[in-house]
Amino acid sequence: MGRSSWAIILACILGAIFFGMLQRGCGLGADSPVVLVPPESRDTAAQDRVAPSARSSTRFAQPPPRPTARQPADPSRGRGAREAITSQIQRPQTLTPADPAARAEALRRARDEALAQGAAANARANARRNVSRQTEPETSGVPEDSAERTGQIAEAALGQQSTPFFAQPPISRRGVASGRTSNPMQGLNGANADGRSNGPPGQSNGGVLGNGLLVTSGGGGGGPVVPPPNGNGGGGGNGGDPPPSETPNPPGAFTLQSPPNNQTGLGLSPTLTWTRSNNAASYRVEIASDSGFADIVHTATLSGLSYTTPPDILAPGATYHWRVTALRNSGAERVSGESFVFVVLPAPGPFAVTAPASNATQGLVGPVTLAWNDSDGAEAYSLVVATDAALTNTIVAEPALTDTTYTIGVALNEGATYHWRVVATNAVGSRTASPQTAQFRMLGPPGPFTLLTPSDGDDAAFIPVVLTWSPAIDAKEYRVEVATDSGFAQRVVNVVTTQPMRLLTADDIDDGVTYFWRVSAINSLDVRGSTPAVATFTTRPGPGAFALRTPADGATIGLPVSLQWDESPNALAYTVQLATSADFADPIVSEFVIPLLSGGTFFDVPDELLEVGQTYFWRVVAGNEVREREAIVSPFAFTIGVTEYDLNDDGVVDVRDLYAYHALPSPPDLNADGVADDSDRRGLRDAIRDEERAKTTNAPGVVRAVSPTP
Fold first, then answer.
1. What residues have CB less than 8 Å from 109, skipping those under 6 apart?
2. At 585, phi and psi to the nearest 5?
3. Is 212 exposed, middle or buried (0-12, 13-18, 19+ CB in 10 A)?
4. Which CATH superfamily does the domain covering 451-539 fall into?
5. 280: DSSP letter
6. Residue 255 and residue 336: Cα distance in Å, rounded?
7. How many CB atoms lie within 10 A of CB 632?
8. Is the predicted pLDDT of residue 137 greater than 70, yes or no?
9. Helix or strand or coil: residue 106?
């Protein structure tokens, strides 16, 4: 080897020392996985021909993937790693300038790009390390710093052919060292911080043919020894196999304690407790309305072993499910066994006041006892009694009664009105009784009242007469008095009633009489008279007395028969009855006669209803809107006899007998009713019509002639 060659080698060694110092001076410490290797070139003329813009276009290879933890060694892994690195490495596109200033500028640019590339490589290594830590199980006996180590970063310097260059490998802050650079003939052991080695010497040179500046990270290459000039240096070992991946152990088992499962009647803010879970850093409490925890109403995370639910979360009477999850800082967690169920105490049920009756108008006599229904779920009752409806002027305030009755012990004023309210309460809520505010009034003297009907001075009162008056406040009863004199010496009615009315019938009063009446309201405190103090009324008169006229009682008469009677004063109508018995059990005739329509007080009995030789009874009853009245002497009786209407004795009753009747100097009593009047003529005329009708129908005639009554 000539002198010039040794000079070049010496210059390279000095340059390496210079750039190593420059590397440390620029902030690349022991943690940096990047090494700057200055290339040298004999072909400076060729480098000068490269465009200046290409001098800064050097690209850097990506680090090879880290091997999976705990996998057995594979002889082909070295070759595969070398091929992977070779496929990623891009040879430098610039030649080292001959001018020292230009070389320094190129090295500065290469350094900046190498720093950027190294930062990106570190980020990728950290990402792979984090993934490995999440998937690898915990390994006892290995420190966490050794388990969480970075990927191996190897560096190789590719220089001119047959020009070896050695660079000091950097040491990672995590304790992982890249392999030392091998010479062209022999690879050195790579060593990491936990003392593992990767590959014997001489098995890899990791170098690839290159002529520029290259900074790489990753494992050393494998394969056969490559003599110069095809390579001048390889990467070191890959820092040994990484530690197993860490899989964090879950927290220890634990159980829920209180409230016990299926506990009922809890308040709105129950305290939940559970046992301790080993290795747990915190606990997550979840409360849901369903067993599948799809509807979580509340959740909280804490480090203790109990949790008190906020009072505004739960609803009275609702059912809830709860569970606890133990948590580790590493992210591992464990859920308690089956979830527990609890039921919140329902709010008090509806209820109502019972006594005194709500808004009762009747005054009470003390002491007054208030009462109400029991409210389901109520633990106590609060009671307020006041003199005003707003319950501000209270005279009784009891916040925690356990009974459903309360007797007011304070003095209450006569005639005063009081208002009260009762509210049922328990641990979760309250409910007011219905109505929300009730009232009662204390008894006072009877209040004023007025006589209403009949109006004072009424002179046409119909029997029955209804006496009415307005109710008197606090009146327990009323005394009613009716008399025929204003001094009430001749009382016909003197009764006590609790209702503001009294019915007077014909048993109490008569028609056509003037009466005086008054009412008094009474209670245990006092008696009060009406307004006006006395009133009068006169009843309408009923039918007056009257008598029956014809037929006379006991007479024997012939046909036709006409019943007649005297007129009754004040009568509006008459009822006429005819029967074969005196008790009128089976009347033959029962007719309603109105004189204004019939023309008088009589009734003609149809002949076909009567039989010769039969005795009949008849009566008449007069009536008006007041009452009814029968004739003075009643009933009368009469018998039907045979009457001789053939006055000319020719054996036929016809119109010639009527001529003979009118020719007589004095009309005879033909119907034997004891009176010779026009009824005899009418009877003769009716007999003639009956005879003519009999001839037309070939029926025998009606014999009307009878022997006169002795």
1. 55, 56
2. -70, -35
3. buried
4. Immunoglobulins (2.60.40.10)
5. -
6. 6
7. 10
8. no
9. helix
- Quickly list DSSP for 398-441: EEEE-SSEEE--S---TT-EEEEEEEEE-SS-EEEPBSSSEEEE
Angstrom distance (rounded) from CA 356 to CA 654: 93
| CB-count burial class (<10 Å; 0-12, 13-18, 19+) for 669 | middle
Pairwise CA distance, residues 466 & 488, whole Å: 19
Alpha carbon distance 336, 286 (integer Å): 11
Domains 256-344 and 364-441 share a fold: yes
Summarised one tens digit per residue, pLDDT across range 339-354 is 999 999 999 999 999 9
Q: In the structure, what pLDDT confidence band is assigned to residue 246 with cuts at 50, 70 and 90?
A: low
**Token digits of residue 416:** 């005063």
Q: Which two tokens stand for residue 647?
A: 């006055």
Residue for token pair 């949790």: 307
pLDDT band, residue 121 (cuts 50/70/90): low
Q: What is the pLDDT of residue 138?
A: 43
Q: Which residue has the higher pLDDT, 115 or 554?
A: 554
Residue 123 CA to residue 130 CA, distance in Å, equals 11
Distance, CA of 624 to CA of 570 (rounded, Å): 7
Q: Locate the domains of the chain by residue range.
A: 3-198, 256-344, 364-441, 451-539, 548-640
Report the 3 state secondary structure along 350-378. CCEEEECCCCCCCCECCCCEEEECCCCCC
Measured CA to CA, the distance from residue 418 to residue 395 in angstroms comes to 9
Hey, is 529 helix, strand or coil?
strand
**Residue 598 exposure: Cα atoms within 13 Å on the Cβ side:** 16
Query: What's the whole-number mean pLDDT along residues 647-651?
Result: 73
Residue 687 and residue 707 in contact, taking contact as beta carbons nearer than 8 Å: no
What's the CATH superfamily of 548-640?
Immunoglobulins (2.60.40.10)
Q: Contact 424/375 with Cβ under 8 angstroms?
A: yes
Answer whether residue 141 shows pLDDT above 80. no
403: burial class by Cβ within 10 Å (0-12, 13-18, 19+)? exposed
Query: pLDDT tier at 22 (50, 70, 90 boundaries)?
Result: low
Q: At what angle do helices 3-25 and 100-135 cross, to 10 degrees?
A: 60
pLDDT at residue 98, rounded to an integer: 56
Q: What are phi and psi of 52, to 5 degrees?
A: -55, -35
User: 256-344 adopts what CATH topology?
Assistant: Immunoglobulin-like (2.60.40)
Q: How many whole angstroms separate alpha carbon 81 and alpha carbon 255?
A: 52
Query: Six-digit token pair at 392?
Result: 């501000």
The region, left, alpha or beta by phi > 0 then psi within -120 to 50, assigned to residue 660 is alpha
Report residue 395 as tokens. 């005279």
Asked if 112 contacts 213 with a C-beta cutoff of 8 angstroms, the reply is no
Beta strand 394-401 with 353-355 is: unpaired
Evaluate whether 482 touches 504 at the Cβ level (below 8 Å).
yes
CA dihedral 270, 276, 281, 287 (to 10 degrees): -30
679 or 33: which leads in pLDDT: 679
> CATH number of the domain at 364-441, please?
2.60.40.10
**Tokens (6 digits) for 253:** 């088992």
The answer to whether 66 and 151 have CB atoms below 8 angstroms apart is yes
**Global pTM value:** 0.40
CB-based contacts of 473, cutoff 8 Å, min separation 6: 361, 363, 444, 446, 447
Residue-wise pLDDT tens digits, 556-601: 887 788 999 999 998 999 999 999 999 999 999 999 999 989 889 9
Please state, in angstroms and rounded to a whole number, the distance separating the CA atoms of residues 537 and 514. Answer: 6
